[in-house]
Amino acid sequence: MTTDTYHAPESVSGLQKLGIAAVVVGLVLTGVGYSMTGLDRFYQAYLVAWTFWLGVALGSMALLMVQHLSGGAWGVVLRRPLEAAASTLPVMAVLFIPIYLGMHDLYHWSHEGAAEADAIIAAKAPYLNTPFFLGRTVFYFAAWILISQTLLKWSKQQDETGDPGLADKMAYLSGGGLVVYTLTVTFAVTDWLMSVNPHWFSTMWGPLFMAGQGLAAFALGISVLVMLSKTAPMSHVLTSHHFHDLGKFLFAFLMLWTYLMFSQYLIVYSANLQEEAPHYIDRNNGGYEYVTYALMALHFAVPYALLLSRDVKRGIGSLRVIAVWLLVMRVVDYYWQVAPEFHKTLSASVIDVALPIALGGVFLTLYAMRLKSHPLLPLNDAGLEKALTHHVH
Predict the structure, then answer these.
(1) Degrees to nearest 5, angle at CA 226 with 150 and 213
(2) Which H or E element spans position 277?
């Protein structure tokens, strides 16, 4: 089997062109939005957009490691999309620069004298201080890039040499890598998102965002595989059985995200502590209650009801619509987590839409470039034959 056997179809070039177009449109709209709202709103919208797309890359890296540990036909056909998403992490690290430049606009604790004026910030000052914050960020990205780039390097070597020992090496790295992922993502979302309000804390925060990252990674992977299944060579590989499996995983991560969201709310509601309750009070007033209702209905209830159907999970058209819709709702969820900390009344702006489009364009362009440069299936993976003959017994 040669590396040309599963070369990328023209549709991947179309995805790259879509990404470039999204960058252009997003930047134009960002300029329009910036002229209307100013620099403060830019940084706030950028935080939402950047953490969302970074989350897609990190969720893909985590699922890639799960695949190397567990095997399975679902992971073999999804491996290249997962690798493509994980390959964007070095650029996502560079895209942290606007967060650094906007620290004083985003994080009240970074202001000089904030600790002296607020006892809670003072108590957290050994952790929430600018040098330590930036040092942790460097560490997070160093760990993520090292893990992802090593897995990508070994995957390429596996294609070229067929060395069976590489599968074991990727599995060993993935075992430790998942531990590193869990710890670093928990601290990272605490740093970048929870500390926007230094008074708020939740031990569910890390698992909640990891579940959301996995959900977004599956949603993007399904969307791309549906696109690839339209033409050769993947039209001869992907079947309704593959999509049924992926649909079940999408459903599982949707349920996990919902469970963690409700659990966090239930714990805060039951305790009714002064430090915790304002988080939900702010999101149930000032117009944000409509966003809350939208998340309950459109992020959970409707996709949940649809994904209960076996026919929907096996139907590539319907499954793709749900997957794309869930990606949109993931952005809304990030907005819901961040925006009320800056604006007590709902005030959506053009820039809130523009920046997810612009950064999404960067992500998709890099993503498509990676897909084009490698075979669409791991040619020497031990589970490839099983994936090619995947069927329900």
Answers:
(1) 50
(2) helix 277-282
Question: What is the number of other CB atoms lying within 10 angstroms of the CB of residue 305?
Answer: 10
**If you write DSSP's letter for every residue of 150-200 in order, what string do you get?**
HHHHHHHHHHHH--THHHHHHHHHHHHHHHHHHHHHHHHHHHHTGGGSTT-
Is residue 363 within 8 A of residue 242, CB to CB? The reply is no
Tokens standing for 18? 């879509």
Residue 208 in domain: yes
Using CA atoms, how far apart are residues 147 and 141, in angstroms rounded to an integer?
Answer: 10
For residue 221, how many C-alpha atoms fall within 13 Å in the half-sphere facing its CB?
35
Q: Per-residue confidence of the chain (393 residues) as pLDDT tens digits?
A: 444 567 777 788 999 999 999 999 999 999 999 999 989 999 999 999 999 999 999 999 999 999 999 887 778 999 999 999 999 999 999 999 999 999 999 999 999 989 999 999 999 999 999 999 999 999 999 999 999 999 999 999 999 998 989 999 999 999 999 999 999 999 999 999 999 999 999 999 999 999 999 999 999 999 999 999 988 888 888 889 999 999 999 999 999 999 999 999 999 999 998 889 999 999 999 999 999 999 999 999 999 999 999 999 999 999 999 999 999 999 999 999 999 999 999 988 999 999 999 999 999 999 999 999 888 999 888 888 887 776 544
User: Residue 382 falls within a domain, yes or no?
Assistant: no
- pTM of the predicted model, to two decimals? 0.96
Q: Domain range holding 53?
A: 10-113+123-374
Check the CA dihedral 187-191-192-194 and report its sign: positive
Q: Please tell me the distance from the alpha carbon of residue 98 to that of residue 104, in angstroms, as a whole number.
A: 11
- Rounded Cα gap, residues 17 and 238, in angstroms: 24
**Residue 102 forms part of a structural domain:** yes
Separation of alpha carbons 387 and 75, rounded Å: 9
Q: Is residue 127, in this structure, part of any structural domain at all?
A: yes
Are the CB atoms for 69 and 175 separated by under 8 Å? yes
Which residue type sits at 30? T
One-letter amino acid at 362 equals V
Question: Cβ neighbours of residue 224 under 8 Å, at least 6 residues apart?
Answer: 15, 81, 371
Number of domains in the chain: 1
